[in-house]
From TrEMBL:
Domain PDZ: 94-172
Protein name (Swiss-Prot/TrEMBL): S41 family peptidase
Native species: Uliginosibacterium paludis
Signal peptide annotation: 1-25
InterPro entries listed in its UniProt record: ClpP/crotonase-like_dom_sf, CtpA/B_N, PDZ, PDZ_sf, Peptidase_S41A, Tail-specific_protease
Domain of life: Bacteria
Length: 474
């Protein structure tokens, strides 16, 4: 079995870290109908294997299971973000984009037969119990994870709210497994949070990009401006795994001049070649402009955007656009590096589906984030002594797509990378977390220094070069 069968469904409370866009389906199906022809010999081989299993395998196997497994393997072999969605997974995907689902609140993937945590969702059972990005789950209650599919593992993590499950995890730097008992909840993620730090300085955190994120952002900004004009604003995208592309465009539109180019995508089919602008039809889904009551000062207030290795996909779209236009300074750690677009294609009367990578996206200045990420203007660790950032990024995933600007082969099979050395604290069963924008948030402290013109403590000799000057990208 290959190292990474599939990368992240939103399963058992997993955030949707992909760009979800059904409008590609119609034209894509037309192209497929005209261009695709079944290879007879290969299909004959598939039928022969199917027949052998049906007749000779030691135990009976249903036709449905064999076909579903064949489809799943075919799609999973493409890249880490393409996957087959059976009935339950397809239903979960539809629910998750609305930001309400049941489970533990963790975004997960499968690696080497074990479940690996991409990111815990803020204010969920997993987050409160101290689950961290990079943790490896190798036992669910008394059941070893190895040998289970990602879907099967997540089904075990699901359950009625109020019931408990024991996660046994391995963590980098810990000598013994850690057991955490979590109580399942109905997860309803609040994607936007805000607070007035002090008179004149506001803070907004976007935890993921959902259907209501743009409208919610507008309401939070209105609230912040009720006390008067702001002198500075911090936009926190740390550990935000992404979500809907129109929500990313909407968040960007709140801070950029109207009709500015936010992001564009390139792919094989015509509808995969798109430009997304800071324009109401792009982010309001046909509804009235959800940013119509946006305070005027929002588009000119000095800004700092916080990001880290858990900032992916839609988060990188926003950060890249604001950096290209020099609308904000970026501070933190290099982002995850997911620069591909996924689309969901319903099949079998809309009860199942396939999630396929159909395009790559680019910032307004033509930068590809794929397998590289966004470099901050100020590189600042989580603490003065280093960062406990996620242990891998897009470039570390097996079969990841190459960055098109590098002119490398299209798909990369990554070898394991050596672990980075970093300061290690004494072992604790549940790690202490700092409150975002709280007194122990070192990156936020440095962001406030930027806004107030004070010295910023960046990593020595590692501050990224400023973004190229943006001249009204088209």
């Amino acid at each position: 079995m290959s190292r990474m069968k599939q990368f992240g469904l939103v399963l058992s409370g997993m955030c949707l870290g992909v760009l979800f866009s059904l409008q590609f389906a119609a034209n894509a199906n037309k192209e497929a109908a005209s261009a695709a022809q079944l290879p007879v010999e290969e299909v004959r081989s598939l039928a022969e294997v199917f027949n052998h299993i049906k007749q000779l395998y030691v135990e009976p196997v249903s036709d449905k299971k064999l076909i579903n497994d064949a489809i799943s393997g075919m799609v999973a072999g493409l890249d880490p973000h393409s996957s087959y969605l059976d009935e339950e997974a397809f239903r979960d995907m539809q629910i998750s984009i609305k930001g309400k689902f049941g489970g533990l609140g963790i975004e997960v993937t499968m690696e080497d037969g074990l479940v690996k945590v991409v990111s815990p969702i803020e204010d969920t059972p997993a987050f409160r119990a101290g689950v961290k990005a990079g943790d490896v789950i190798f036992k669910l209650d008394d059941t070893p994870v190895r040998g289970l599919s990602l879907t099967d593992a997540v089904k075990r993590m699901r359950g009625k709210p109020g019931t408990t499950i024991v996660l046994t995890i391995l963590r980098k730097g810990e000598t013994k497994p850690i057991e955490l008992t979590l109580t399942r909840e109905e997860i309803q993620v609040q994607s936007v949070k805000s607070k007035l730090i002090e008179p004149g300085y506001g803070y907004v955190r976007v935890t993921q990009f959902q259907e209501q994120t743009t409208a919610d952002l507008e309401k939070h900004l209105e609230k912040l401006y009720k006390g008067g004009e702001l002198k500075g604003l911090v936009l926190d995208l740390r550990n935000n795994p992404g979500g809907l592309i129109d929500a990313a465009v909407g968040v960007s539109a709140a801070f950029l001049p109207p009709k500015s180019l936010v992001v564009y995508s390139e792919g094989r089919i015509p509808d995969a070649k798109r430009k997304y602008y800071a324009d109401a039809p792009e982010y309001s889904r046909g509804a009235p402009d959800v940013l119509k009551n946006l305070p005027k000062g929002v588009r000119s207030v000095p800004m700092v955007v916080l990001l880290n290795g858990g900032s992916a996909s839609a988060s990188e779209i926003v950060a890249g656009a604001l950096q290209d236009y020099k609308r904000a300074k970026l501070l933190g750690i290099r982002s995850f590096g997911k620069g591909s677009v996924q689309s969901i294609f319903p099949i079998v009367q809309g009860e199942t589906g396939v999630k396929l990578t159909i395009a790559k996206y680019f910032t307004p200045l033509g930068r590809s984030i794929q397998a590289k990420g966004i470099e901050p203007d100020y590189e600042v660790d989580e603490t003065p002594n280093g960062s406990s950032e996620p242990f891998y990024r897009e470039a570390d995933l097996n079969r990841h797509l190459a960055n098109p600007n590098d002119r490398e082969p299209e798909v990369q099979a990554s070898a394991p990378r050596p672990a980075k050395s970093r300061p290690q604290a004494e072992k604790t069963e549940v790690p202490v977390r700092f409150e975002p924008a709280g007194p122990e948030d070192y990156q936020f402290e440095q962001a406030m220094n930027v806004l107030k013109g004070r010295p910023v403590s960046v990593k020595p000799a590692e501050q990224s070069a400023p973004a190229e000057e943006a001249s009204a990208p088209k």
